[in-house]
Amino acid sequence: MHRYLTLLLLLFPPYGTHAEEGENRAREVCAICHAFPDADLLSRDIWLGHVLPEMGARLGFQSFQGRIYIPNPDAPDGIYADAPMISPAEWKAIIEYYTRTAPERLPYDWPTRRQTDLFSIEMSDPALHEFPTTTAVHIDVGKQQILAADAFALGVETYDKDVDRIETLRIGGVVSKFALTGAGYWASVMGPDIGQREAAFGMLIRPDDAGFERMATGLHRPVDLIVGDVNSDGLDDAIIAEFGTHRGGLRLLIGQADGTFLIRQLLEDAGVSALELVGETLWVLIAQGDERIVRIDAFATDPVVTEVARFPPVYGSSSLQVIDLNLDGYVDLLLTTGDNADFSPEYKPYHGVHVLIGQPDGTFARQFYPLDGATSAVAADFDLDGDLDIAAIAYYARTDAPLDESLFMLLINEEGQFQPAKVAGLGRLGRFVAMSAGDIDGDGDTDIALANMAFGPYGPMTVSSDLQKQWLAGPAVVLLRNELR
After folding, report:
1. Phi and psi (nearest 5°) for 167?
2. Does the pTM exceed 0.85?
3. CB contact at 8 A, 137 and 158
4. Residue 143: exposed, middle, or buried by beta-carbon count in 10 A (0-12, 13-18, 19+)?
5. Are 241 and 263 in contact (CB under 8 A)?
6. 378 strand-pairing partners
7. Strand partners, 485
């Protein structure tokens, strides 16, 4: 009897043995490239239909269980293995782990947002554009103007404090970020469109009397930009985040007396997406594959890179702000997760605003506020009560929730905890991909400019034709004017 039982156990191991073996092997294999994603981070259908096929192709499997794995033909050498890196049995165990332990669907928790009358809504004239394609926006407090990037016209538009358009500069590319300088502004240009191309069509420009000057070319989809004199030699330097699918990195451009740049590659990760400069420390968000936050000390002279936080690749990290949020003298991090158009397009309960409060021992205490598809967040004292509040937008917003609650969220600081609020009437105007906070009218309170890019990949969103038409008829720029003063 015992002999037969032993034979049965060898032929048909208990579920727990299979699951444990698959999980252990998954932890080992996943750690080669990124943080381990637990099975409960995605639903079973997304694992089997999207994520595991891509993982199998990268591990060198051309087919498995009747499924054909097709590598991305534009990927550089080394992304997809030429031959299987693990045995078919090991790969089967990994698939079984995710198949057996992933949930049918992810949990859904949507906190009610109270309404705030802190802002009134103003907007640019929708008739100025066939449809809104604004990819970047910046409030120039000194000039009381708004800079906005038009991806359809491939130019930069300038608006006054009443959101009336003043002028348009054609540059032939899609601007991703503005950086103000004493003489005006510089802009990073992704290329001829917003796609994650493998080719290096990006450039760095600044306006001049003849139109604009190309300061640097051959950049790989630059998405964030810092301009300043980082080495104190009296010349402007630039730090550029390049965010591609498989190619990208972090570049430091040291200005030279003849107007050229000495280029240093600080990081070679494809997904460098957000930069924050605090003193001589550069904080970097890497949001593709191996998602993490790093700090680079002495970056301009002798860089020392330290990993601060690491996340599974399904998090979709989308923005970073480094700030002393609670005014206690320690660095805090304001992170959004919500990029939702790659291999795991579904609403995720861990998408939203992550408030990482710095502790004396160098660790962080975490607060989380859900906002599906969160794209960006910025902290400021919007209600003028002496503490910092948070405004956040979501490009891949929940369309099965009230749009006024899902596209924009104001987190009002109440003794260190944040209470979510909404602005009525905002959800019908468009999809917001970028924002900027600043006192545009000089009255002493902080306003918010929103960039409306009304089209684009939907990810998990269900957008009716009526809603899409409504968004396409909206304004290029929305101004939330603070009404406190």
Report:
1. -160, 165
2. yes
3. no
4. middle
5. no
6. 391
7. none
Cα separation, 218 vs 223, whole angstroms: 14
Separation of alpha carbons 72 and 227, rounded Å: 35
Q: Which two tokens stand for residue 265?
A: 């590659």
Placement of tokens 């034979």 in the chain: 7
Q: Which of 251, 257, 331, 259 is nearest to 299 (CA)?
A: 251
CA atoms of 70 and 94, how far apart (whole Å): 19
Tell me the HSE value of 264 on the side-chain side, using a 13 A CA sphere. Answer: 12
The two three-digit tokens of residue 469, written as one number: 């038409």
How far is the C-alpha of 209 from the C-alpha of 17, rounded, in Å?
71
Give dist(CA 332, CA 329) in Å, integer. Answer: 9
* Phi, psi torsion values for 29, nearest 5 degrees: -70, -45
DSSP-assigned beta bridge partners for residue 228: 237
**The pair of three-digit structure tokens given for residue 323, joined into one six-digit string:** 């700030």
For residue 435, CA distances in Å to 130, 136, 237, 308, 380 come to 21, 7, 24, 26, 13
pLDDT at 13: 45
Going by the DSSP 8-state scheme, the letter that residue 38 receives in this structure is: P
DSSP line for 49-78: IIIHHHHHHHTT-SEETTEE----TTSPTT
Distances (CA, A) of 123 to 127, 187, 375, 413: 11, 23, 21, 27
Rounded Cα–Cα distance for residues 150 and 132 (Å): 8
Task: Write phi, then psi, for 10 (nearest 5 degrees).
Answer: -70, -40
Q: For 471, which DSSP code?
A: H
Question: Of 271, 297, 299, nearest to 285 (Cα)?
Answer: 271
**pLDDT tens per residue, range 279-331:** 999 999 999 889 999 999 999 999 999 999 999 999 999 999 999 999 999 99
Residue labelled with tokens 């499997």: 61
Please state, as a whole number, how many other Cβ atoms lie within 10 Å of the Cβ of residue 414. Answer: 11
Q: How far apart are CA 437 and CA 391, in angstroms?
A: 9
CA distance 134 to 154: 10
Q: Which amino acid is at 369?
A: Y
| pLDDT at residue 300 in the model | 94
